[in-house]
């Protein structure tokens, strides 16, 4: 299949699965300059999240290959590579990135530090903050009836179970609107059954990106109860642009936002009571029109795109 590609001047790698980067060694890509946007830890973690599935503990890079193989043996799809296979896969990824890559974009400072500790050359990282485009028709809206919004994959590391338990304990009148995409069917089925007993919880099917603006703009808060070092979800960027308060787990990868720009960090991220307290504090704030920062965010995205184009030009000029 790769042999049928037209001549390639530059490869921008934006995502790859645990199958790794072996395709970059195949013609016609073997000698093509490479740049990469790394959105998670897949380059060094075959499970992408740097969290041990059995224990729930965050991994400290570099992780022994034996620990990785042990973790992957508990993966829902039954994958169970040997430690030697994990070590070879990770070595190949780092070799290709360090030897072939000219620039790397990461999503957060924490992600960058983890990847460097795992073996990525620090000098490759050209930016450690993500930017996303804001659709032109999006804008802020007055706060309506209190609504807490969850948007994300239905999987344990996203922490929806913690948020549902907080709602169960909470006496507040706000509704919880849950928008999930399929990921772990058994997990989602259990949570849907649990949520069915609470009339304040409304579960909606996945939305197209362009339809998120209206839902976000009318929300009282966006909840991000992640139990892994989340790498700046797109929906958080959208909420900040629209002035929607973000109540987020205080995972290391989100700490650079601090308690500012409408982001509230929850230190005890696995404790439903901590989420109850945070929601009380955020939703008791004054209602009214939201701060319109969409123009500022669009300008930042344009600058980001210009920076990428500049890197392309530099790489191609030096090839």
TrEMBL record:
A GO MF label: glycosyltransferase activity
InterPro entries assigned: Glycosyltransferase_grp1 (IPR050194)
Gene3D superfamilies: Glycogen Phosphorylase B
Organism: Phytohabitans houttuyneae
Protein name per its UniProtKB record: Glycosyl transferase family 1 domain-containing protein
Pfam families cross-referenced by the UniProt entry: Glyco_trans_1_4 (PF13692)
Matches recorded under SUPFAM superfamilies: UDP-Glycosyltransferase/glycogen phosphorylase
């Amino acid at each position: 299949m790769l042999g049928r590609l037209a001549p390639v001047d530059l490869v921008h790698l934006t995502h790859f699965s645990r199958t790794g980067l072996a395709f970059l060694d195949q013609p016609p890509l073997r000698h093509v300059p490479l740049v990469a946007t790394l959105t998670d830890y897949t380059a060094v973690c075959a499970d992408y999240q740097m969290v041990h599935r059995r224990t729930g503990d965050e991994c400290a890079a570099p992780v022994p290959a034996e620990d990785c193989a042990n973790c992957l043996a508990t993966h829902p799809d039954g994958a169970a590579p040997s430690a030697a296979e994990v070590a070879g896969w990770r070595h190949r990824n780092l070799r290709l990135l360090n030897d072939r890559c000219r620039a790397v974009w990461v999503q957060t400072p924490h992600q960058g530090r983890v990847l460097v500790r795992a073996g990525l050359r620090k000098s490759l990282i050209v930016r450690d903050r993500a930017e996303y485009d804001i659709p032109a028709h999006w804008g802020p809206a007055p706060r309506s009836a209190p609504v807490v919004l969850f948007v994300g994959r239905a999987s344990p590391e996203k922490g929806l179970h913690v948020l549902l338990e907080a709602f169960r304990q909470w006496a507040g009148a706000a509704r919880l609107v849950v928008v999930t995409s399929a990921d772990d069917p058994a997990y989602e089925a259990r949570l849907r059954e649990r949520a069915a007993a609470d009339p304040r919880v409304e579960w909606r099917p996945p939305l197209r990106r362009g339809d998120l603006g209206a839902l976000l703009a009318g929300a009282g808060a966006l909840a991000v109860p992640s139990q892994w070092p989340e790498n700046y979800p797109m929906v958080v960027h959208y909420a900040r642009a629209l002035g929607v308060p973000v109540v987020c787990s205080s995972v290391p990868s989100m700490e650079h936002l601090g308690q500012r720009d409408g982001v509230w960090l929850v230190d005890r991220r696995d404790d439903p009571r901590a989420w109850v307290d945070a929601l009380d504090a955020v939703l008791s704030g004054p209602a009214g029109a939201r701060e319109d920062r969409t123009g500022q965010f669009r300008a930042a995205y344009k600058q980001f795109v210009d920076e990428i184009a500049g890197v392309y030009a530099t790489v191609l000029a030096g090839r």
